[in-house]
Design a protein that fits this description.
The protein is globular and about 75 Å long. With 533 residues, it is mainly beta. Strand 8 and strand 9 form a beta hairpin. It folds into two domains: 410 residues, Beta-galactosidase, Chain A, domain 5; 108 residues, Immunoglobulin-like (Sandwich), CATH 2.60.40. Its main location: periplasm.
Length: 533
């Protein structure tokens, strides 16, 4: 298994040694984390409105970046030394109370240079959890506890629950680094991450990374099936109040409500941003690394459900240059980064377990209005880097000083219930075509398609944008999958110019779209691809 670490300023990539350490920390031992009374002036009783009011008040003051809160000795730790600081499982929050959830904490240091305050909310009071070096085993870092200031905080926290077996509390979700968080469903390994918000992603002036600076965790009852977490977001351009209602199981769900307050105008806002990794797959023409594995990715495609009912599938890629694609999605009904391929033989990685990585699906609550789903593919030659970003972005800039609320559900799962009602793309393969150009093989399958047998008049509809033509196409039954296979050849419609011969990347990619139909009935989602002549 493997784990990414997200810093307060960027996604830093996975380090394979971390996840086994996290599993070790999940061992069940006796003890309870001490909790002290609330700080003076802290508001009670607590409600989500407390966080909204804090975000509003914070937005009316200039941004004050956290600096100098973490001793330099902690920031100078290398990864192995930081990993040697381990939370004591016997000190987990609610350890001895027989509740459905427990909480453990991360120590500041290494990349994590911002302190996070965490509060516990009960029906009677709101209490801040004080930092105490006794909560951690410092391993070989013997001198560090002496350098911890009296008033200190955590780097983040993780939530544990009986997700796989009733008697053992496994890790369910993690909030760590900037506004990053991740979760797993039953039987899964960590992969894709989510964020609270994306600001100016892939713009020339650089991305801004908001961060969660304060959390409130509502204490569950013994009958609770969900855990509610509130978070205060802060950044140079804006603030936000977030609420997460988390329920784990065969599908882990998070009902999210986010209220944003802009301090200054923002060029690009990304709502419900998702971050994943795609190094190479079955559609990759040329690998950037020599590797024994057939495929390496946490997600293999972007899926969008439009307001019209159309389902849209875009296979992910690892391009030579940064690629930004915007797909019109007014009142979008859902989008996500999907790991459709669940066959171990397609990965052959006993450690990473890519076939067990979650799909993460976003379901908006209500109408989000005019906007688009943006997909960003960043070139990479290492699987430790998150190089795929997807989010929904409103068409019009959000107003300064006027609260904007977005509600949505996040679903972390390994099944296929978000497949379109009929056929979906199960594989995309490419290669050189005889006579020039590129051949595409797209397999569609579903239970409905399996019922269609020759001589059913299943047809493929292939279109391409300016710069290329469809040279040949064919549709046939695939007896090995039960689905139908669409194959076609795409060729440039004109010879490259002298400049394009020298700089081939100057030639823009051509948009391809394809789906299957029978008579006037659409059978499948729409497949989309960027063909590079």
């Amino acid at each position: 298994m493997s784990q990414r670490i997200h810093s307060s300023g960027r996604a830093l990539g996975r380090l394979h040694l971390l996840f086994p350490a996290l599993l070790l920390l999940a061992q069940v031992l006796p003890g309870t984390l001490p909790v002290k009374p609330a700080l003076a002036g802290e508001e009670t009783p607590f409600s989500r409105q407390v966080v909204v009011d804090k975000a509003r008040q914070l937005s009316q003051a200039p941004f004050a970046p956290a600096q100098g809160e973490v001793p330099q000795a902690l920031l100078d730790l290398d990864y192995d030394a930081w990993r040697d600081i381990r939370f004591r499982p016997d000190k987990a929050l609610w350890k001895d109370e027989k509740l459905s959830f427990q909480v453990q904490f991360f120590h500041p240091g290494l990349f994590y240079d911002r302190l996070v305050d965490v509060h516990v909310v009960t029906k009677d009071a709101t209490e801040r959890i004080p930092f105490d070096p006794a909560l951690f085993d410092y391993g070989n870092n013997h001198s560090l506890p002496e350098q911890i200031p009296e008033r200190f905080g955590f780097a983040g926290f993780r939530i544990h629950g009986p997700i796989n077996t009733p008697s053992y509390f496994d890790e369910v979700a993690v909030f760590l680094g900037a506004s990053y968080f991740r979760a797993v469903a039953k039987g899964q390994a960590y992969g894709i991450s989510a964020r609270g918000l994306a600001v100016d992603t892939a713009l020339p002036d650089g991305e801004e990374f908001p961060y969660f600076k304060e959390f409130w965790i509502e204490k569950p009852t013994r009958k609770s099936t969900s855990l509610t977490v509130h978070a205060l977001l802060d950044s140079k351009s804006l603030t936000g109040a977030y609420t997460f209602v988390i329920e784990s199981g065969r599908t882990t769900t998070m009902d999210v409500t986010a209220t944003l307050f802009l301090r200054i105008p923002v060029a690009k806002i990304g709502i419900a941003p998702l971050t994943s990794m795609f190094l190479f797959g079955e559609n990759t023409d040329e690998r950037k690394v020599r590797d024994f594995r057939p495929e390496v990715h946490d997600s293999d495609g972007l899926l969008i459900k439009n307001d019209s009912g159309e389902w849209f599938w875009r296979p992910l890629d690892n391009p030579e240059n940064l690629e930004i694609n915007a797909f019109s999605a007014d009142n979008v009904r859902g989008f996500g980064l999907v790991q459709r391929d669940r066959d171990f033989a397609h990965y052959e990685d006993l450690e990473a377990g890519y076939e067990r990585r979650p799909t993460l699906w976003v379901e908006p609550v209500g109408d989000w209005g005019f906007g688009h789903v943006e997909l960003i593919n960043i070139p990479t030659d290492k699987e430790i880097h998150d190089n795929i970003v997807a989010f929904w972005s409103p068409r019009d800039p959000l107003p300064v000083g006027v609260p904007q609320t977005y509600a949505y559900r996040l679903l972390w799962y390994n099944g296929g219930f978000t497949h379109p009602p009929l056929g979906y793309v199960s594989a995309t393969r490419t290669g050189d075509a005889w006579g020039g150009g590129q051949r595409f093989i797209v397999d569609f399958q579903s239970k409905a398609l399996a019922l269609l047998q020759p001589p059913s008049k299943v047809e493929g509809v292939v279109t391409c944008g300016k710069g290329a033509v469809v040279a040949a196409q064919n549709v046939e039954k695939n007896p090995h999958t039960g689905g139908w296979r669409l194959s076609f050849v795409i060729r440039p419609d004109q010879a490259p110019s002298a400049l394009e011969k020298v700089l081939p990347n100057r030639r823009p990619p051509v948009d391809l779209r394809a789906f299957l139909k029978i008579n006037d009935t659409t059978l499948t989602e729409t497949w989309n691809y960027a063909y590079r002549p």
